[in-house]
Amino acid sequence: MTDYQDNKAIVLQLYEELEAASADDVGTVLNRYTTSDYQFRGVHPFNELEGADAVADIVWKPLCSAFTAMQRRQDIFMAGANNEDGTEWVTSMGNFMGLFDNDWLGIPATGKIIFLPYVEFNKISDGKISESAFFCDIISVMKQVGLTPLPIQTGAEFINPGPRTHDGLLIEIQDVAESTKSLQLVNRMKDDFVSTYGSQVPADILAKTWHDDMLWFGPGGIGAAYTIDGFLNQHEGPFREGLDNIVFNGHVCRFAEGHYAGWFGWPNLTMNPAGGFMGLPASDKKVHMRVVDMYRRDGDKLAENWIFIDILYFLMQQNVDVLARMRKILRR
Fold it and tell me: What's the CA gap between 249 and 241, in Å, rounded?
């Protein structure tokens, strides 16, 4: 048994130093906290990288240069043992906030406040970070500056809030029994979903693990939904109608602490488009979906769910390069 406090301290210290560092110094900071064989998984266009220098050059330096005076505003912070293999991970979710003073990924700067929703999983090995998975909502940034990169989304569009209970920063030691309850609940919920792939998930199946007034905070391009009926009508229904032959591939990491739980896969799902989802035509091509889910448990059921999907990668596999299309339009 471990309380994961040392792991939390490592990540919190890294975050503090990254926030204080200049764009030129982020590589030095990252090298100090990561192993020599550090592995990074990120949303498209970052994808898989090796070594702190590559991650600093491709991910953090451009981001810090674009978003000046950037703050990491956490809504969830937790740590635990991976249900898949027993390795130890620390997860942070929230928003980066800064002044959008310089273009980022071709997205034009506004000089105004910008929010970048993110979630990050860090694997701790012998006191250093050996792996990271970094999901951020690039489409949300595009929409905040007035671009319309995708068709009208099915859910509501806004910057997703943190937990209703405002207790997601698990800095202190948590009750192991509560952590076990949360992990068992999300595992049951996952099994229910996987067992119904190939059909519409019934509301009564959802009600076994979800509160009726559940909140589902989806990514830019899909949006948020409220209540079981709202979730079925505004996300899960269109998702299952528009995608065929959904196969669950498992997770790289899945754990819980206290009343919170989360996971990510690489990829979580494989499917082929049936037509209509995100405005795309039907296809026999197999495409992959990388997904993060973060959960808050309230009593015996789940109350809130935050979702990050690597939509740019999902679309890229179907020959839709959203960033390239944006740059082409802006050059006109």
Answer: 20
Q: Where are the alpha helices (DSSP H) in the chain?
A: 5-20, 26-33, 52-55, 61-66, 138-144, 176-195, 203-206, 227-231, 237-242, 311-316, 322-331
Reduced to 3 states, what is the DSSP secondary structure of residue 243? Answer: strand
Full-model pTM? 0.97
Residue carrying the six token digits 């090298």: 31
Taking Cα atoms as reference points, which of 247, 241, 286, 304 lies closest to residue 93? 304
In whole angstroms, what is the distance from residue 32 CA to residue 22 CA?
Answer: 15
For the stretch 124-148, pLDDT in tens is 999 999 999 999 999 999 999 999 9
Query: Alpha carbon 85 to chain centroid distance?
Result: 21
310: amino acid identity, one letter: D
Determine the average pLDDT of the residues in 280-293.
Answer: 95
Tokens standing for residue 60:
């953090």
* CA–CA gap between residue 268 and residue 256 (Å, rounded): 18
Is residue 293 pLDDT above 90, yes or no?
Answer: yes
Do residues 292 and 267 lie in contact, with contact meaning Cβ atoms separated by under 8 Å?
Answer: no
